[in-house]
Amino acid sequence: MNYQEARTEFVERWGSLGINWGVNRILGQIHGLLLTATEPMCADDIISMLDISRGSVNTNLRILIDWELIEKCHITDKRKEFFTAEKDMWIIFCQIIKQRRKKELDPLLETLQTLAVLESSCDHSKELSDMIKSIDLFSRKVDKALHQIVKEKPNFLVSTYLRM
Question: What is the Cα–Cα distance from 6 to 2, expressed in whole angstroms?
Fold first, then answer.
């Protein structure tokens, strides 16, 4: 397999993983393309390499910038905007955790807090209340663990969790 075949396979696979992580395939592909880029790329480069629309590229670039997975960079004597990806996998991992917490866990915790005031007027409401409390307790522990992981250095994760 040559360089271009390997890069194309990686970009395709990264896009497929994106779907499993709850983002669209094109966002994953753009991120994979920028991860494997040896030089900054402009939107036109991305459009031609992935054969996707300008609107889709621009939308997904904004999302990746918001997630702090890529950044704009300026090249002297060039009028176009260029983009580079963060290549440190620990930083990428932490940024994704932060975004997933904000998108999924925070709204769940807010909902559980609202539901915690459920009146126990019957056996069913007592059961529901107990389940809500159990999910809330577990979710808060997960939130605390994720916060700790993001706060720590990569060696902490490796030495503590990945040895198992």
Answer: 6
Verify that 111 and 138 share a domain, yes or no. Answer: yes
How far, in Å, CA of 43 to CA of 126, rounded? 55
* pLDDT tens-digit map of 25-65: 999 999 999 999 999 999 999 999 999 999 999 999 999 99
3-state helix, strand, coil in the chain (%, to 5): 70, 5, 25
In this prediction the pTM is 0.80
DSSP assignments along 73-139, one per residue: E--TT--S-EEEE---HHHHHHHHHHHHIIIIIHHHHHHHHHHTT----SHHHHHHHHHHHHHHHHH
State whether 73 and 33 are in the same domain. Answer: yes
Pair 7, 78 in one domain: yes
Residue 97 has pLDDT above 80, yes or no: yes
Print the domain residue range for 116: 89-160
